[in-house]
Amino acid sequence: MNDMRRLLAGLTATIAVQASGCSNESANGTPTLVRIDSAGIEIVSSTAPAWTAETSWRLTALPILDIGSVDGPDENQLHQVEMARRTADGTVFVANSGTSEIRVFDAEGSHLYSFGGEGDGPGEFSSLSRFDMADSDTLYVWDPRSRRVSVFEIGGAFARTIPIEPAQERTGATYSGVLSREQLLVTILNYGERAQGSGDRLFEDVVQIATYGPDGSLRDTVGAYPAAPIWMRVHSQISEGRTIISLMRNQLPLAGGGAHASHGGIVHVTSGLEPEVLSYDAGGLTRIARFVARRQPVTDELFASWIEDQVARSGEAEQEQRVLEAFEGAPLADSTGVSTTLVVDAAGNAWLLSVAMPGDTLAAWTVLSADGPWLGSVTMPRGFRVYEIGDDYVLGRWRDDLEVEHVLMYGLDKG
How far apart are CA 237 and CA 184, in angstroms? Predict the structure, then answer.
């Protein structure tokens, strides 16, 4: 990795960087090659996307559903949305973390009812994060502060609580999805190692994926992937005669990061550092799907452009100083990462959000089919946070120019 110090000492100019492209032609004219290795693992390697300009998928120009407003009824004013899901009849469930509620809307966007609320009692949340559905009639809602998953019936009736505790000391366990009614997905990080040492440093962790039972007990380990590299800075200040030390944690710019998602009993994993998705079933690794992605060295000039992009997107001149302070002394990533987010749609296709480059106005999602081949790319508004992809829609969160939150649903045209 390169040293950032001389760049941070005198960053002044805006430098345009053109991202390098990649060829869509394979050497033998075959865009996808499938083989089985000696361990019985299927290797699917694609050198070109299957879609053409005529067959590629795209979102509708405008949302077909918009939930959220700057005024009007309180239930339509959203704050800190963390998740949204849609049922077969069009009902939309929204995790509104700002009020610690699950809010439910009909297919037209009208509020139906809410449940939850702030508190420590059964069916309440001290903090509200993601939720998932099992068989379209049960909700699993994660409360990270209370370290528990609350289970609800679809109508909002509270059923039970599942504690999520780390199986070992100095580790952290975070609920990350439902594999089945009998298995929850949990990610495990080694916080003990992260806390060791002194001074500013780069922390590169490994995320372990485990399954927990309905009683909150550790069942098995599924797989692992590298977490996004974190630059940790030690910050000290004197207050009332005492020295207070805190840590600033920020993901290394342009480096990408690992992610996982599940569908139909299969767990899909990507490191975000390489263009591939690994698929696991109960027996272990079953498939590796590879594709071609744009990569380029992270130079001082590219990092300078990234900072300018951050300032432009925030609209705040102070953002530059905040970024410079956060990454003072940090190394640059050797090269740009591949992706930062993984979503699996209703048909089992894997969608990977490409690392955003300076100047990008749209977000590019690489799509791999349920059986592995690279299909192509779908663009979406940059800043649109995708929660769910159905057969003919994409559901997510958007903040408008006034920072008002909306849950938007776009139609998905499949050519």
Answer: 41
Summarised one tens digit per residue, pLDDT across range 311-322 is 998 888 888 898
Enumerate helices (H) and strands (E) in the chain, giving the number of each: 4, 30
The string of DSSP letters for 258-285 reads -EEEEETTEEEEE-SSSSEEEEEETTEE
Structure token pair of residue 346: 């209703």
* C-alpha distances out from residue 268 to 346, 379, 407, Å: 14, 22, 26
Name residue 162's amino acid.
Answer: I
* C-alpha of 45 from chain center: 24
User: What is the Cα–Cα distance from 298 to 226, expressed in whole angstroms?
Assistant: 19
Sign of CA dihedral 235, 237, 242, 244: negative
Residues with Cβ within 8 Å of 118's Cβ and at least 6 positions away in sequence, in order, are: 99, 100, 124, 125, 126
Q: Count CB-CB contacts under 10 A for residue 205.
A: 16
Q: Report pLDDT digits (tens) over 148-181.
A: 999 999 999 999 999 999 877 767 899 999 998 8
Instruction: Give me the residues of the chain with pLDDT under 50, please.
Output: 1-29, 195
Q: For the beta carbon of residue 165, count every other beta carbon within 10 angstroms.
A: 14
* Cα distance between residue 380 and residue 100, in whole Å: 29
| Residue of 365, 299, 290 whose CA lies nearest to 336 | 299
Structure-block tokens of residue 202: 């780069």
Distance, CA of 175 to chain centre: 14
Instruction: Single out the residue of 109, 113, 114 nearest to residue 90, CA to CA.
Output: 109
